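Because discrete structure vocabularies remain unfamiliar, we turn briefly to a single example record, giving the amino acid sequence and backbone structure tokens:
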Amino acid sequence: MANTVIQLKYSEVTATPVSLNVAEPAYSNSSGKLFIGDNNSTPVLIGGKYYVDRVDEATSANTANVIVKRDSAGSFSATVVKADLYGNANSATQLLTARTIGVTGDVEANSVSFDGTQNATLNLELTNTGVGAGNYGGATQIPTFAVDVDGRITSAANVAISTTLNIAGDTGTDAVALATDTITFVGGDGITTVAYSANSNVKFDVDNTVVRTTGGTISGDLAVTGNLVVLGNTITQDVETIVAQDSLIELAANNAADALDIGFFGSYVDGTTKYTTLFRDASDTGKYKLLTGGTEKPSAGNTVNAQAFSTATLQANITGGTVSGLTAAIAIADGGTNATSFNTGNLVFFNGTSLDSIANTGSAGTYANASHVPVITTDAYGRVSSVTNTAIAIDASQITSGNIAIARGGTNNNGGYTTGAALQFDGSKFVSLANTGTAGTFGAENFIPRITTDAYGRVSSVSNTAIGNLSAAIITTGTLPVARGGTGNTSFTTNAILMGQGTSAVTTVASSTEGHVLQINASGVPTFAHLNGGFF
């Protein structure tokens, strides 16, 4: 039966076919099961790799959902065997062989023989740990115990209580007799102690020479090597010099809603006490202001009343940013215009003290062209005040002699020309050429026009020549398409079958595998493959 092929449906994704013809086999690689169709076209499960795998994985072990097979001794393992049992085990009231039941470990009991015919009773008793019965501990003794892993006391004893207490301070040590001595807590510099017999407490307190959390005064120098955190709202410094290592100082750390002015101020006396300040004004879109001559100290509500100050003078070089909102124009000497406004579109001129606007006098427009000459009027500033167009008018009678030269756009010929003749430039002027052509329509689907020209490149004669038979040898480029009776292709596979592709090129389908047959795939395309029953 060499090269015999049995038709068999198969699927890589579907576990069970929906229907099969009578006696039609089908195999699913998805479920590993083999089916065959009955006389009602219903798939019937008859086997497959799924069941072979179940048999191969069978063991004598007690494994859930796995087939059981006997081992080499004919035995197998199971948890529950549901069956009727016969013989001695089915009706016995006595064990075949009696067994002795005993107890070992931390309890003791007599051994009892048990064969199933009557109850067995074990009398248990704890093993002796060697600890003597009695009371432990007292006024001058402390009991000590040892407990094993089972929680039993394996030893017990009394240990005498020491009557001496050793104490030590920053300097010095002492031994105190608990029964007779008294421990006294002595205060030091700025510290006092008070003993309370009612509840056996000793209170340590500091006097007014020590800085308390509620306040105090330090009369000497104070060096703080760690961080100093002040949680109060006001810090008053009556000092002459402040030195800080940090290059940036944060102000208004609690300004969560941009409601506070940010900056610094100082005071001076010019007969009366006045104030000067540099700050960011929260009430004026965050502008920075340099003010002086203030009569109101900037302290109430962390704000500055700018109305109580005058604008201060700043001497500095300013770069970057924009200049806006000035109360006076920038002078000419300072690089300004000395003016505050200009009219849109006006010209600007210097009037001797400032830049000024000059009203427009001209009329917008386009003047002068091939047929018009502009007439222009200017004012005292050299501005064009008016412009008009004057048409160029030259009468033909004004040209009384000569020819208009080639260089001036003329023909350099005033002798006339032959009607309908072509013009020829002879090197100095234009002259007429006699007509030589024949009127008509030449060239068609089956004719090629033959054209004869003269020395001037003019067509002197035209005739039609019929297109004759063409040899295939003259087709040297391109591929003849299907629409013109060709294949649309330049080569084909040896021993392949030709396959049409509509109006596109003819293609081939081939196979070099023995036993392949030409079939149609699911898309209707011919293909070579081993015969099969298709997919489900």
Notes: The two ends are 28 Å apart (CA to CA). Helices lie at 49-56, 88-91.
